[in-house]
Specification:
heterodimer; A: alpha+beta; 8-stranded antiparallel sheet; B: alpha+beta; 60s Ribosomal Protein L30, Chain: A; 5-stranded mixed sheet; 10 strands
């Protein structure tokens, strides 16, 4: 678990750097939590199954496949858009096509930097798919990331990192749900002996 | 004295039943299907939050019957029969089975929502349970609640508001 935490830390560190370059401001990052969580608790990580979130979802392909989510509250997404691309978001409820594609690009950059540092650290090939965006109930969104786990058991491994951009309080969260096979591969790549308990 | 309405919550890959009065609810259905069974005479209702279409893909180990359409539907039926429901009176409604994300060149595993819906329907027809109504598909999440007195299924979504079936 400590190794995974470190891996998450390094990935998130790079993503935070990317974000702070984009914003031209320092961005803090909370130390990632690595947890084995029952399905029910996964959505609680982002405020409950029914809370509305904006999610950028990437499927990670390659040696260690998994599902990566970058999750923002709709308010945080609007702030991010305002700061980054100077778009003043008018509607409370919806994003325009332009805003949507800007968010998708931001997510792509952040997720890309998160993944590439994970890949560097583990020497595993990890390729992100084109990002997909959705704004909906957290349960419905994260449920999708748990399907691979559905074949195995009722809990999932989560690497969870929060970003805080101080003055403006833009908060975002990375949730990486590796496919069950992923841990073995990452542990082997890191040279950590496997034990079964 | 005003009694507070009883709500039974059903989690992901879980199932439960309720009788007499109150609501049975599951939140945040995406590609999962919320399948409900209802016997109007004894006012017994059941709800399963189905995650995957078939248990044949399950690996070794303990099988969570609530997780798969092909095992959850019969298990839910059995629980209802145990509390006095009769199979010939039972009717079904369901919601969910959406595709939250769409990708170019998506493989079969990404069609999980529609496959969940198909699998639930197959099982219902095998068991001879009529499907009265459904609100499935689309690309959005749903929270559903079944009133065990009336059998009305309430469906709430971010994009479409509240709907009754």
């Amino acid at each position: 678990m400590d190794v995974l935490k470190e891996v998450g830390n390094i990935g998130a560190g790079n993503a935070a750097t990317a974000l702070s370059r984009l914003l031209d401001k320092p961005v803090d990052m909370a130390v990632p939590k690595v947890q084995m969580l029952p399905f029910e608790a996964v959505a609680d990580k982002v405020g409950g199954a029914e809370s509305v979130v904006l999610a950028i979802f990437l499927r990670v392909e390659g040696d260690a496949p998994g599902n990566l989510f970058f999750i923002l509250s709709p308010e945080a997404a609007k702030k991010l858009l305002q700061r980054l691309v100077g778009i003043q978001v008018e509607s409370e409820e919806e994003f325009s096509e332009m805003e949507w594609s800007a968010l998708s690009e931001i997510g792509n950059i952040l997720a890309g930097s998160y993944l590439s540092s994970l890949a560097d650290f583990t020497s595993l090939a990890m390729t992100p798919t084109v990002p997909a965006l959705a704004m909906d109930m957290a349960g419905a969104i994260l449920g999708y990331g748990l399907l691979q786990f559905g074949e195995m058991g009722d809990s999932a491994l989560l690497i969870d990192t929060t970003f805080i951009e101080d003055q403006q309080e833009v908060e975002g969260q990375f949730i990486l749900i590796p496919d069950p096979e992923f841990f073995d591969k990452i542990f082997i790549a890191l040279g950590v002996p496997m034990n079964d308990d | 004295m005003i009694e507070e309405q009883r709500i039974v919550k059903v989690g992901m890959a879980d199932l439960n039943i309720i009788q007499q009065s109150g609501l049975i609810r599951t939140t945040g259905l995406g590609s999962c299907v919320g399948l409900t069974l209802f016997d109007p005479v004894v006012k017994a209702a059941g709800l399963a939050h189905v995650m995957l279409p078939t248990s044949s893909i399950a690996r070794d180990g303990a099988l969570n019957i609530a997780k798969y359409a092909d095992t959850a539907v019969p298990a839910l039926l059995e629980q209802l029969l145990n509390i006095g429901a009769e199979q010939k009176r039972i009717v079904a409604k369901m919601a969910g089975g959406s595709q939250m994300f769409t990708f170019a060149g998506s493989g079969d595993s990404l069609r999980i929502g529609p496959r969940n819906v198909e699998s639930c329907k197959e099982k219902l027809s095998e068991l001879g349970i009529p499907l009265l109504a459904e609100d499935t598909g689309g690309n959005y999440g749903r929270t559903i609640e079944l009133d065990c007195e009336t059998g009305i299924l309430f469906i709430r979504s971010v994009q479409k508001g509240v709907k009754e079936l």
